[in-house]
Amino acid sequence: MGLLRVRIELVDQPGALAGVAAVLAGLGVDVASVDVLEVDGSTVVDELLLRLPPGVEPGEVEDALRLGGALEVLSSKVDSPSGDATVRAMELVGSVLGAPGDADAPGRGLARLAYADSGMLLDVGEASRFPLARRALEGGVPASGRAGPDASPLAAVSGWIMWVAPAVAQPQQLAVVSRRLDVRFSATEAARMRAFATVLEVLARVPG
Fold first, then answer.
1. What is the per-residue pLDDT across 176-200, written as a single tens digit (0 to 9) for each?
2. For a tag on the chain, would you pick the N or C end, based on fewer CB atoms within 10 A?
3. Inter-CA distances, 40 with 66, 69, 139, Å
4. Residue 52 and residue 35: Cα distance in Å, rounded?
5. CA-based angle 186:203:108, to the nearest 5?
6. pTM score > 0.85 for this model?
7. pLDDT tens, 65-118?
8. To the nearest 10°, the Cα dihedral for 125, 96, 85, 190?
9. DSSP bridge pairs for 48
10. Could you tell me which of 178, 150, 184, 149 has the C-alpha nearest to residue 163?
11. How far apart are CA 60 and CA 82, in angstroms?
């Protein structure tokens, strides 16, 4: 079976997700996991990890989602067999450690972990010129806001930005990611980013 990760907007009412699941079941599609990313008044954004049977294409699934009640299919992408978040995180840590000369590897790992378009690690001194970064550093909690030149050094003019400080004393770097999709980062994504950044910072402090 292939894996497809989709984000959909639904009416926030009982039975909305069940309607989508019923239509997917008619195609033989299995819902492997559901994450609620955002609740905004009368609607909710859910992320679904779907297992597709042979012969079912992503386009058919997207049509079925709309037929089942999705107001909008916000994103849809084929996922790797290691769809489990923990497995993926360990693989990403390994990819960074295995490429010590690749300065962009941590940013790519952060972006993949948070389902973002781009990411990077930035020295605290340089990051502190951005208000969201200062909030993340001083408050010890992730800080997110609208993208723009005053939000981060990433080339993102729309969507959302999130800054995260590693869970260590006196962090040397902050992590930042951007997403063009107009869906805020979830608490789960923030926690994954923080854990990833913490591992990288701790390993960087190991002598020699």
1. 999 987 777 887 788 889 999 999 8
2. C
3. 19, 17, 25
4. 18
5. 45
6. no
7. 999 999 999 888 887 665 566 677 778 788 887 877 888 888 998 998 888 899
8. 0
9. 6, 34
10. 178
11. 23
Nearest one of 207, 145, 120, 205 to 171, comparing CA atoms: 205
Domains of the chain: 2-79 (3.30.70.260), 85-204 (3.30.450.40)
Dihedral (Cα; 47, 51, 54, 56), 10-degree rounding: -20
Torsion of CA 164, 165, 168, 170, to 10 degrees: 180
Q: Rounded to whole angstroms, what are the CA distances from 188 to 43, 67, 79, 81, 135?
A: 19, 29, 18, 20, 19
170: tokens are: 């006196």
Give backbone dihedrals phi and psi of 122, rounded to 5 degrees, phi first: -130, 135
* Two structure tokens written together for 206: 């190991």
The encoded tokens of residue 60 equal 């058919």
Residue with tokens 């550093």: 137
What token pair was written down for 201?
């910072």
